[in-house]
Structures are given as structure tokens and as C-alpha cells.
């Protein structure tokens, strides 16, 4: 059996770790909504703003000789970061929440995780090649696994209206954009500085529409504050950095497909924390997601060329 590339496994572990943190934070956010009556828009704004600020502080502490504003010496980067913030950071989260409000969480999740299809098609177009066989197999496993994990094999919980479909597809495109667009910035400046500015600017852009100081009827207790801090530090800051940093080791196609492990992570959290009973279809879905990881860990030789060329795939 062909040995796996160590860098490939580093990238896989980064994506899966980010997925675990995102899955745990999803359960925590649901508790904030249901128990402490937090507003979704408020949580999104606060977590983006403070996560971005913390990332920039971390960058300054670890790169004392370099200014956090160095990324903007090239004026073109100002436009790049703002586009990444608005279309990527805000786009994927806002569209996802609107899709939930117009339909339900299961429908919104299914639509958002169509993102890897857009990534596969985009990469194939820019690289002027058809997707590799293992990519098609992994994508199929990921889609089937995600569907089974979200629906438990039943379509009864899926609610699709025109507005739900539109916002869900927008969130899918934004999710794909979030993986593809910032590659050049991450290659040159690293994920901490790039994501830090992306989140901070996204939070600033959201402030006129969702003021952080307008707390409404949200209940602040020591528990809800701890939950909120977890969402900011681990569910947002660490999750996004791990996910986007994996682009140093994986192609956007593989990062996008592995990102579909998030529903599996959410299921594990629900079992361990909320004592959720797993159905047979969920077991099958989990097996499909694990199969995705195994398939992508054994890459054809020319995938390395795909990864090396990834910074040339988009011109901004």
C-alpha cells in the first residue's frame, strides 16, 4: 500500500480539528440561543470582531518586528482583505443564518455543504483538467455522509422555499469563496494575520446593522459568558485558522471536502454532551465521512502539482 504524505496528514488533521471545534461551538451557540436568548446576528458580530482582534494581538506578540499593518503596504491587499471579509467571512455566516430563518437548520446545512462542488468545478476549470477519480469518490462519500448525518435518512425535516434555496446556495458559494479567494494572502502573510484582519473588518462592517452594545433581552451569567468566550476563542478563532491554514498542505478541493466532516463532529458532540441516540443512517453517514478522509489521504502523484499551483489559480 502506498505510504501517505506526512504533509497531507498535517492538512487533514488541521481540517478535522477545525471541524471538531466548529461542531462543539455549534452546540454551544444553540444553547446560547435557546437558554440565554442570544441573538444570532449579535453573536456573529461579536465573535468576528473579538476573534479578529485577538488574532491580530497574537500576531503582534509573535512577530514583534513586523507591524500588523504590513499586509496593507500593497494597496491592492486592502481591496483583497475587504472583499475576503465581506464576501467570505460575513457572506458565509449571514447567508447561512438567513437560510435557517427562512427554512430550518437541516435544509440550510445541506445547501451550504454544496460548497465543495463549486470548489471542484472551479479548480477543474482553472487547472484545465477533470477532477481525479479519488476526488469524485471522496466528494460522493462526503455528500452522502453529510446528507445522512443531517437528515438521518429522512426527507421529512427538509423544508425548501425559494428564499431558502437562494440563501442556502449563496452560503454555499460564499463557503467555496472562503477557501479559494484568500490563498495568495495566506501564502504570503500567513493565516493569523489574514484571518485576523478578515474577521476584524467583518465585525466592523456588521456594526452599523447589529450593534454589539445593544444586548436586548440576552441573559448574561457566568455560564453564558464562558460559553460565549468558548465560541469566540475556539469555535471561531481557532477553527477558522486551522481550516484556512490547511491550505498550505492541501488543495482547496480537498480542504472543502474534508470540511464536510463538521456534521460528524456535531453528531459526536451531541452524543457525548446532549446524550443523543444515534440512528442506523447516522452510523452509515459517519462511515462515509471517515471513508472520505481515507480516500483523500492516498493522493495521486500529480495532486502535488495541484497543491503547488494553487496560489496561481486566482488573480485578484
Automatic annotation (TrEMBL):
Membrane topology: Multi-pass membrane protein
Keywords in alphabetical order: Membrane, Transmembrane, Transmembrane helix
Subcellular location: Endomembrane system
InterPro entries per record: AA-Vitamin_Transporters, EamA_dom, EmrE-like
All residue ranges annotated as the EamA domain in the record: 9-150, 164-297
GO cellular component: membrane
Keyword Membrane: yes
Top-rank taxon, per record: Bacteria
Pfam families: EamA
Transmembrane intervals: 42-61, 81-100, 106-125, 137-158, 164-182, 189-209, 221-244, 256-274, 280-299
Database matches in PANTHER family: EAMA DOMAIN-CONTAINING PROTEIN (PTHR32322:SF2), INNER MEMBRANE TRANSPORTER (PTHR32322)
Family: Belongs to the EamA transporter family.
Protein name: Threonine/homoserine efflux transporter RhtA
Amino acid at each position: 500500500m502506498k505510504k501517505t504524505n506526512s504533509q497531507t496528514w498535517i492538512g487533514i488533521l488541521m481540517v478535522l480539528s477545525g471541524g471538531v471545534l466548529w461542531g462543539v461551538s455549534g452546540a454551544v451557540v444553540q444553547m446560547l440561543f435557546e437558554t440565554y436568548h442570544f441573538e444570532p446576528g449579535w453573536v456573529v458580530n461579536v465573535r468576528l470582531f473579538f476573534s479578529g482582534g485577538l488574532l491580530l494581538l497574537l500576531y503582534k506578540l509573535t512577530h514583534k518586528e513586523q507591524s500588523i499593518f504590513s499586509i496593507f503596504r500593497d494597496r491592492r491587499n486592502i481591496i483583497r482583505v475587504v472583499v475576503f471579509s465581506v464576501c467570505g467571512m460575513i457572506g458565509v455566516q449571514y447567508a447561512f443564518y438567513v437560510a435557517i430563518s427562512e427554512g430550518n437548520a437541516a435544509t440550510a446545512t445541506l445547501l451550504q455543504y454544496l460548497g465543495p462542488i463549486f470548489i471542484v468545478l472551479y479548480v477543474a476549470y482553472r487547472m484545465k483538467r477533470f477532477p481525479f477519480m479519488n476526488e469524485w469518490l471522496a466528494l460522493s462519500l462526503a455528500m452522502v455522509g453529510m446528507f445522512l448525518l443531517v437528515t438521518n435518512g429522512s426527507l421529512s425535516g427538509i423544508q425548501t422555499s425559494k428564499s431558502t434555496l437562494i440563501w442556502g446556495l449563496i452560503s454555499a458559494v460564499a463557503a467555496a469563496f472562503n477557501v479559494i479567494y484568500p490563498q495568495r494572502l495566506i501564502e504570503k502573510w500567513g493565516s493569523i494575520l489574514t484571518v485576523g484582519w478578515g474577521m476584524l473588518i467583518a465585525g466592523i462592517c456588521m456594526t452599523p446593522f447589529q450593534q454589539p452594545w445593544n444586548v436586548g433581552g440576552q441573559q448574561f451569567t457566568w455560564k453564558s459568558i464562558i460559553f460565549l468566550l468558548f465560541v469566540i476563542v475556539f469555535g471561531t478563532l481557532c477553527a477558522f485558522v486551522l481550516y484556512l491554514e490547511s491550505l498550505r498542505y492541501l488543495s482547496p478541493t480537498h480542504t472543502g471536502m474534508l470540511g464536510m466532516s463538521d456534521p460528524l463532529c456535531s453528531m459526536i458532540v451531541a452524543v457525548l454532551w446532549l446524550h443523543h441516540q444515534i440512528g442506523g443512517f447516522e452510523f452509515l453517514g459517519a462511515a462515509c465521512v471517515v471513508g472520505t478522509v481515507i480516500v483523500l489521504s492516498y493522493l495521486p502523484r500529480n495532486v502535488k502539482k495541484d497543491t503547488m499551483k494553487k496560489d496561481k489559480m486566482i488573480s485578484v
